[in-house]
From TrEMBL:
Pfam families: Aminotran_1_2. GO terms for molecular function: kynurenine-oxoglutarate transaminase activity; pyridoxal phosphate binding. GO terms for cellular component: cytoplasm. It comes from Marinirhabdus gelatinilytica. Belongs to the class-I pyridoxal-phosphate-dependent aminotransferase family. This is Methionine aminotransferase. Residues 26-375 form the Aminotransferase class I/classII large domain. It comes from the Bacteria. Its cofactor is pyridoxal 5'-phosphate. Keywords: Aminotransferase, Pyridoxal phosphate, Transferase.
Length: 379
């Protein structure tokens, strides 16, 4: 017999709702993945890399040309240089990068502040290594951080703050002022920061992504994690990266090499070529803004209330004018009785606080969005 290290963790809500969607043949707006393919040019590049024989282990930190392209991208967008040799590592998706950063730095008794609603991998990873999660609940409708609450949450045991911007599930963006407040708190208390930036290129209304890389004092103590799967509509490839100062990256790689060692080689080769053309990611915001706006227009006149997402490919739907039932129950009923699968947001909140909101993913074809919206308008 073993004693569970995660006794309170069960199957993720994403798996649960996707299985329910399949069982009831429902339109799946729950799990965050596109239902359209990635660029055919990228598929050709992957096939070409395989045919050219790049099918053995990649270097442990990742293909050097890909790391150089990432370094160039960060410097162009944010004015910060990350040495591709020592400060960038290619990972098996952003979740592995997040897990590895936590594994490399969090010890028993360390406290980690995170903002809820939060992506559900953060807290279990902290717990697994003996850390204590200190949640700071964001409040609707803006979901903006309350930095006084953050300051009051810092103790002598606080080791790290985890942030996510653009924010899943709310679609909120951290402002420049938010990042300056974070920088001041982190510097004053000598804290590490883990900045989950997987939706870095999915930002609307020509807003600027306030990457931790833009703030020099903050960048010196921050792990930045990102996702090619989210950016290039290929979540199943599980390909991401981490950028961090050399002293932090050295510790990161100590764990990375014994966790996955290295990740998919031909895809790395393909991405290195594909990243040469910046339009492949610079146009992503406009691409998804069109989908967001299309969904909002389709839902006009429905009983759902919404505040347009500022980033990510998620939109929150407030259903307080429809029912007061718990969001988990309502999400299940929507799937079974109406044929649309969504994500109840209480599962991401401190003590499962229920704001009567559902998260939908609009990274779907127009046909899918039209069918789903027609059903949602009928409720």
């Amino acid at each position: 017999m073993i004693t569970s290290k995660l006794p309170n963790n069960t199957t993720t809500i994403f798996t649960t709702m996707s299985l329910m969607a399949a069982k009831y043949n429902a339109i799946n707006l729950s799990q965050g993945f596109p239902n359209f393919n990635c660029d055919p040019k990228l598929l050709v590049l992957v096939s070409k890399a395989m045919e050219e024989g790049h099918n053995q282990y990649a270097p442990m930190p990742g293909d050097i040309l890909l790391r150089e392209r990432i370094s160039q991208k960060i410097e162009t967008l944010h004015g910060a240089f990350y040495n591709p040799e020592t400060q960038i590592t290619i990972t098996a998706g952003a979740t592995q990068a997040i897990f590895t950063a936590i594994a490399a730095t969090i010890h028993k008794g360390d406290e980690v502040i995170l903002f809820t609603p939060a992506y559900d991998c953060y807290a279990p990873s902290v717990t697994l290594f003996g850390g204590k999660v200190v949640p700071v609940q964001l409040q609707p409708p803006s979901y903006s951080p309350d930095w006084m609450t953050v300051r009051n949450s810092v103790s002598e045991k606080t080791k790290m703050i985890i942030i996510n911007s653009p924010h899943n599930p709310s679609g909120m963006l951290f402002s420049e002022n938010d990042m300056l407040q974070l920088q001041e708190i982190a510097e004053k208390n000598n804290l590490l920061v883990l900045s989950d930036e997987v939706y870095e290129h999915i930002i609307f209304e020509d807003a600027t992504h306030q990457s931790a890389a833009r703030f020099s004092a903050l960048a010196k103590r921050t792990f930045i994690t990102a996702s090619f799967g989210k950016t290039f509509h290929a979540t199943g490839w599980k390909m991401g990266y981490c950028a961090a100062p050399e002293n932090l990256m050295a510790e990161f790689r100590k764990v990375h090499q014994y966790n996955v060692f290295s990740v998919n080689n031909p895809i790395q080769k393909a991405l290195a070529t594909y990243l040469k053309d910046a339009s492949h990611y610079n146009g992503l915001g406009a691409f998804y803004q069109q989908k967001r706006d299309y969904l909002i227009a389709l839902l006009k006149g429905s009983r759902f209330k919404l505040q347009p997402s500022k980033g990510t490919y998620f939109q929150l739907l407030d259903y307080t004018e429809i029912t007061q039932e718990a969001d988990v129950s309502f999400a299940e009923r929507l799937t079974k009785e109406y044929g649309v699968a969504t994500i109840p947001t209480s599962v991401f909140n401190t003590e499962n606080k229920d704001f009567k909101q559902l998260r939908v993913c609009f990274a779907k074809t127009e046909e899918t969005l039209e069918k789903a919206a027609e059903i949602l308008k009928s409720i």
